[in-house]
Amino acid sequence: MKLQSGILISVCLLMSLTSCVTAKAEQACRQKMLLKADNIGPVQLGVSKEELVSSLSEIPYQRKDYYSEEAGNDHTDFVIELCENSYVTANFYSEEILYSIETQSSAFLTVEGAHVGMTAEELKNVYPEGKFINAWNEGVRRFFIIDDGKHGVFTFDSGRCVDDGYDVSSECNAVLPSELSVRYWTNSSYTKPGVWKNIEKTE
């Protein structure tokens, strides 16, 4: 009986130690995969498909190729598991270089500690200079932008917003402090300082 108890305790300690090591490894991974204007970890805007694959080394990914007859162009996504169960998507459109990167994972942080899943109020506290805008991208979406050339964009899936042509419903104008960010997104067009300066903000 004592032997069985001893074995059980040893197994439990081993499982606990393994979980601890795994958690530390995941934390270390995520600390290296920062959200920036030009990259998320090793996934860098402006590289070719071959360069992207080479940079991933042993990092697992899936490649998905599409063709749109309506748009008349090719579209390739690389869904990359940078850390365990934490993914980013690298988008190649008709260009031969990586055009945009996005993630819906809350695991990755900006240098200042912001991440997907933060509320509008929390993001504003981290970036007081940031501003909210409404944009027509797959329906009406709210963006939170930090126009300094060092950050991408946090997006909100605002179900309150109704796209009526280009007239946004009045419910969309007011930003609710509790609205949750659902994605971090950056592309080669929106990372230059001042690119958003003439965009009307929503408060």
Q: How does this model look, in words?
A:
The chain is of the alpha+beta class. It folds into 2 domains: about 30-105, Beta-lactamase Inhibitory Protein, Chain:B, domain 1 (2-Layer Sandwich), CATH 3.30.1450; about 110-203, no CATH class. It is built from 3 helices and 12 strands, in the order H-E-E-H-E-E-E-E-H-E-E-E-E-E-E. An 8-stranded antiparallel beta sheet has the order 3-4-5-6-12-9-8-7. The longest helix is centred in the first third of the chain and has 31 residues, at about 1-30. The mean pLDDT is about 75.
**How many helices does DSSP assign?**
3
The tally of domains stands at 2
Q: Output the strand order for the largest sheet.
A: 3-4-5-6-12-9-8-7
Helix content: 10-25%
What string gives the helices and strands in order? HEEHEEEEHEEEEEE
Radius of gyration: 21 Å
Q: How is the quaternary structure best described?
A: single chain
Write the layout of secondary structure elements.
Layout (H helix, E strand, L loop, with lengths): L1 H31 L6 E2 L2 E2 L4 H8 L4 E8 L4 E11 L2 E7 L7 E4 L16 H7 L4 E6 L3 E6 L7 E4 L6 E2 L2 E2 L12 E7 L16
Antiparallel strand pairs: 1-2, 3-4, 4-5, 5-6, 6-12, 7-8, 8-9, 9-12, 10-11
